[in-house]
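Summary for the funding panel

The consortium committed to producing paired sequence-structure records for every protein in the target list. Below we show the first two records in order, beginning with the earlier of the two.
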Amino acid sequence: MTSMIPYRSLFSTRPTLRPVIPASLFDAFDDMLDLSSDVATKAFPIDVEDKGESYEVKAYLTGVSKDNIDVELNEGRLSISVEVEGSKEEQEKNYLQREFTAYSATRGVYLKDASSEGLSAGYVDGVLTVTIPKIVEKQNVTKIAID
């Protein structure tokens, strides 16, 4: 039989209506890290793949609108930022349990040989795919014959 109690992450934030005794050590850490703010900070998973002549970065952003995503490349550092705002209409509803809230998150990865030319990004089915070409170094090597 499955439980109706939602999964509790080590770093989740949740509102506390009354003081409770933590059921486990992880719950105690959750309570210590509980930030009483309307906007929670969450992380989203990313994959970084070296494709030879380019990098492909995938960010899994299910339920996020394309307008709420910001992607920047600054001197080899790729930053992906997301900000999802809750609406006032949803706050007035009488939820018994609510797990989706407003949040913001930023993930970054350093790609030492990333080129700022020829960048592309696409967002399909909750997956952001960013393709970053590598800097092509011209090798000025001249073979010298020995007499």
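The next record, for a separate protein in the list, is shown here:
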Amino acid sequence: MTQPVQPPASAYFITPEQEETQSRTLSIIVDNEPGVLARVIGLFSGRGYNIESLTVSETEHEKHLSRITIVTRGFPHVIAQLKSQLDRIVPVHRVIDLTLSGGGDEASKPIQRELAIIKVAGKGEKRVEALRLADIFRAQVVDSSIEHFVFEIVGRPSKIDRFCAILEPLGLVEICRTGVAALSRGPRGD
């Protein structure tokens, strides 16, 4: 009688029942030079990981440094592997997991903000309701006509998600989001 063949003992064979995926916000300080972003993103795509949010900007002009902020979702052990491999790329100076940097309580979670520009078309009561909701969510009107509004809203991604969901039945036409910008709390820098 032959024994059934068992898959090799590898972290890639862990099933979702054994480990939950987690959302992680990574801050990566890199040299501001051509090709760096492609190399960083290549590590994620090579492992089949989606990037939920990506922002990149030069943060220190004199030193030619940029900050890449990535929000991704994955298994903790694979995220740890990604962070380790990111650390080894030559133009990468630091990789900070902002999700883990402060601890577990709400007061130590990273500060995350996103900007969204949202177009809503509507007349009559829907128009009045859209303006009322914008006031509640502290969204600014940046363009308007008798048939539409364009709102600008800044806040946590969950706030923007809620605002968009509420505007959906009122004539939501189009959304443009910047992606998450994030910093750790406290007096120390990354």
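Regarding this second record: Helices lie at 36-46, 76-88, 98-101, 125-136, 157-167. The chain has five helices and nine strands.
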